[in-house]
Amino acid sequence: MSRIASIEISHHRLPLDPPFKASWDGRPRRHFDATIVRVRDDEGREGIGSGDLMKGFEGHEDLFVGQDPRHLERHYEVLSHINFHYGRCWPLDLALWDLSGKITGEPVWRMLGGRADRVRLYASSGVLREPSAMADQAERYIEEGFPAMKVRFSSSSGGRVGWRDDVKALEAIRARVGDRLELMVDCNQGWRMPWDTTLPWTFKDALSVARELERLSIYWMEEPLFRSDRKGMKALKESTSVRIAGGEMTRELYEFRDLIEERVLDVIQPDVALVGGITGCRRLAYQAREAGVTFTPHSWTNGIGVLANAQLTAGCGDAPFLEYPYDNPEWSEARRDYPMIAPVQHRDGWLELGEAAGLGITLDEERLKATRI
Known about the structure:
With 373 residues, the chain is of the alpha/beta class. The chain contains 12 helices and 12 strands.
């Protein structure tokens, strides 16, 4: 019987030159950090995960070492307690699924139920560009086979002047590509960077934006109100034909349960690297389906997080599209996936997961040595 022998956590930093100017952050990002979690068993196999910093995990290794790595529900319970007392340590859950897949010789998507071995993607942009440049980017996405694109609105701390300027970018895209591309909008109102103290939109701000998005046939509007305003989001959902999406930074599974049961959102967006891991988020996939709520994970992390969310979505979800962070040149696949020997790459807007055991990750050990903090 396989037993967990060790857990190793390392932190890495890739300098970004030119910097990445994220729409949700007024400060240009001059580096990209990644935390790598490795779980080894007593037969030398290694499971890999990535995501949050694993703050608070140190000192809890003994709760896992000596256990069977395949006892995923047991490990989930322990991680949920650590999450309550300390930080988000869900990358360990991803590593345990990867190791379990390597022990059984199965890809995670099949271990989760085998619903599909690939997922349809939407190109998730991150940079605020002038309207004509946004339209150029949309055309490039179409040429690469993507069926949908997410456009970022500026947070209060940077980028365009306000939402009316953001709407102009959408209008330019629609004028250029017509209905050849589904468009989503991330309103960036659900949370703020620590230094950004500007208030989010009010309900009537969001409703005004929704009216403009209806005119432009937008598929969903994401995070249109502050995360605590559940009544406002439900009222907005009932006031517009545009789908309301959210939940990417939600910390607890029971919060998602309430969002689903109360029909607050049309689309929930948990990220396995940030809430519940694969073990917890598969519960949400089933709950959402029973309630008629769309389940499609947030995945703005590195390629390890993209693959983990894709394995879950393919295995037991039924998402129309999965987020694929990709906005050349500032957010290339090579930058996003620098811990890996080769970046995750789509094929005509699809991510094909194949038969590789576990999550399908191969780390670039030389790159990780060079970028270790």
